[in-house]
Automatic annotation (TrEMBL):
Domain called Carboxymuconolactone decarboxylase-like: residue spans: 36-118
Top-rank lineage group of the source organism: Bacteria
UniProt xrefs under SUPFAM superfamilies: AhpD-like
Name assigned to this protein: Carboxymuconolactone decarboxylase-like domain-containing protein
Source organism of the structure: Variovorax defluvii
Pfam families: CMD
Length: 124
């Protein structure tokens, strides 16, 4: 079964992040130039649709997203999602506690790397 994208908001002219805030970065612009369809799907489906669903708060979506990034060792994405989680209501203490908790599920090296990334962002 194919879902029509006509029900999805169209935001392809700007980069969108949950909470209705738009983020512009060189990386997003490079992705837009390199893989425009991927960027369109990121804007329209991921941030324009999934992040706007009412079943989870943006705070909860941020904590879940950050947890997945820690588990997968995606440090580049942590740099944007950790601050976004703080803006969406996750506390610094909760973020660090999630990283500590994930050490036992995602591996010590992933947790240490994530904790160092969180520390870099806090120091900035």
């Amino acid at each position: 079964m194919t879902k029509s994208t006509s029900t999805l908001p169209s935001t392809t002219s700007q980069s969108v992040v949950g909470a209705g805030q738009r983020i512009y970065s060189p990386a997003r612009q490079q992705l837009r130039e390199t893989a425009p369809k991927l960027m369109q799907l990121t804007d329209d489906v991921l941030f324009g649709y999934m992040w706007e669903r009412p079943q989870l708060s943006k705070r909860d979506r941020s904590l879940i997203t950050c947890t997945a990034l820690v588990a997968l060792g995606m440090t580049d994405q942590m740099a944007s999602h950790f601050p976004r989680a703080l803006m969406n209501g996750v506390t610094k203490e909760e973020l660090i506690e999630m990283i500590t908790h994930m050490a036992f599920y995602a591996g010590w090296p992933n947790a240490v790397t994530a904790a160092l990334k969180a520390g870099e962002l806090q120091a900035a």
